[in-house]
User: Fold this.
Amino acid sequence: MKIAILPGDGIGPEIVAQAVKVLNVLGEAFEMETAPVGGAGYAAHGHPLPEATLTLAKQADAILFGAVGDWKYDTLERSLRPEQAILGLRKNLNLFANLRPAILYPELAGASTLKPEVVSGLDILIIRELTGDIYFGKPRGVRIAVDGDFIGEREGFDTMRYAETEIRRIAHVAFQAAQKRDKRLTSVDKANVLETFQFWKDIVTEVHRDYPDVALDHMYVDNAAMQLIRAPKKFDVIVTGNMFGDILSDAAAMLTGSIGMLPSASLDANNKGLYEPSHGSAPDIAGKGIANPLATILSAAMMLRYTLQRPAQADRIESAVKKVLSQGLRTPDIYEAGTTKVGTEEMGDAVVRALN
Ligand code: NAD
Assistant:
């Protein structure tokens, strides 16, 4: 099994180093190869996604990605900016399924903006379709209206569309993810208003026939937003389109308190995946040794579960993370009085010790 290691910019190299340390003590024979990406790619080869980096990402079974972006590249033309690397990887590798677990460890219940009893022990998985929907649908643009109530005025327009294949493949990913968890799937749509999402609902219902062991329910997106805040623990797995998923997954992220705790996976049709923390390159704290590496370490655990088919190793890492939190170790972003403040490396070392 080959893993491409793409640390990127800012805190990327610091946090990815901790995840690599953890992967190295599992006793597995993974081949790992590192390549520059983002600002580091531009500095080395004049492009945020150098040809050699893309080739490595294509060859590898899985990709562990840190983060990209640095203020010093903000004046470059858009196509050369670091953030283009992640878009290029998603597009080139056809990573259409974005999996974002939102887990709140009981020890961190005080870090959430919601009441501890509402969120403590939260463990949900949001699956967002990543390459379709109104974000990519054509035609789009600004034009002079030729019909409707405002003929002759300028109007902005986009196109919401989903092909059957796009819905089927994300539904399969979602049902299979639910099978690995509590076997409950909520498909979020707006079927009462949008043709696209009535079609979505019909196709998800059809795919359900292949997964009789999973309980499926359907929920309108406005209700889902409300339920996520009111009673988030009622959900197990949520699957939805690109735009609804964009919004709901950020709302769910905040239930858990710190962005430094949130892993993510972006998968293709064969479960090949790019795994990265949900946060960015945090240039404000880069080089200070205080970034929280747990989101990246938990992303490596997701890689073991979804792409490398090593669920027991994924469980081991997740248990080790729980253990260091119960020992009271905290990076500054999750620090509370009465706990022990540690840096990036110390946190990585503590996870390694807990694994052993
Ligand atoms: P950010 O997520 O990098 O940082 C937001 C805040 O969270 C900052 O205060 C930061 O210090 C803190 N933070 C983030 N990760 C942390 C961690 N692991 N531990 C402790 N604190 C952490 O978002 P931003 O400041 O809006 O963006 C910074 C750069 O990252 C920009 O160039 C942006 O384009 C890029 N970005 C990249 C990705 C990606 O690579 N997928 C995603 C989002 C943003």
User: Anything to note?
Assistant: The mean pLDDT is 95.
